[in-house]
Specification:
With 188 residues, the protein is an alpha+beta fold. Helix content is 27%, strand content 29%. The protein has one domain: Aminopeptidase (3-Layer(aba) Sandwich). The longest helix is centred in the middle third of the chain and has 18 residues. The protein is globular, with a radius of gyration of 15 Å. The two termini are 25 Å apart. The chain binds coenzyme A.
Length: 188
């Protein structure tokens, strides 16, 4: 079982830890200086193969994106975390949830994305499981939904191993095509 602990105090009533730690990873609330690390992920064609609309063209785009992540945290008290190997300052991925509507229903959309050199080591599963555990614990009434392009086998596996289950009732059209939904058990 992966260890998840809160490593900093809560700043927002009822919601997310500023920092999460797992056995191997440190997840931190994003700040503006994380833009270059985020660009290293989303400027790489391999990480957006299944979701090309997410690709960033330059550092300016990355700064704008991180600013949106920061504002989501300011507004909701949770959002996306930047993920680092515990022993390093390098950002190797990001994972978290953001508010959105699917079929008119308010949900927390779970995302995870890592630099290709780190794939296959269980990092996405470890980070996603930590995020899901935190949300289920702190926001028990919320529905978590991972939207996955059907051909994205690694992402499907991460969703399942993070504790979500396939839920065709929440399938929907996404920015890059039809997405399969995986949801937290509370809504079934
Ligand atoms: C999806 C993604 C986050 C998985 O990251 P990861 O750290 O490699 O994931 P894990 O190591 O936890 O492995 C998850 C599963 O993917 C499989 N996998 C990992 N890399 C793989 C590869 N290159 N080819 C095929 N399967 C792969 C693993 O075998 C594992 O499945 P299993 O445990 O059932 O065997 C990563 O591939 C990625 O960032 N992809 C681009 C972004 C993306 O598609 N994100 C999801 C949509 S938001």
């Amino acid at each position: 079982m992966l260890g998840v602990s809160v490593a900093a105090s809560w700043e927002h009533p009822a919601v997310g830890a500023q920092e999460l730690r797992t056995e191997r990873l440190r997840l931190t609330r994003p700040v503006a200086s994380d833009s270059a690390g985020v660009f290293a992920i989303l400027g790489d064609a391999r990480t957006v193969e299944h979701n090309p609309s997410d690709r960033l063209e330059d550092l300016g785009d990355a700064a704008e994106l991180v600013d949106r992540w920061v504002r989501h945290w300011d507004e909701h008290g949770f959002g996306y975390w930047c993920v680092r190997d515990s022993g390093s300052d390098r950002i190797i991925g990001y994972a978290g949830v953001k508010r959105m509507l699917i079929h008119g229903r308010p949900v927390l959309n779970l995302v995870y994305r890592f630099v290709p050199e780190m794939w296959g080591r269980g990092f996405a599963t470890e980070a996603a499981a930590a995020v899901v555990a935190r949300v289920v614990d702190q926001l028990p009434g919320e529905t978590i939904v991972a939207r996955v392009r059907p051909g994205n086998r690694p992402s499907r596996h991460v969703a399942l191993k993070a504790g979500l289950q396939r839920d065709p009732t929440m399938d929907c059209q996404g920015e890059d095509g039809f997405d399969w939904a995986f949801t937290s058990p509370e809504i079934r």
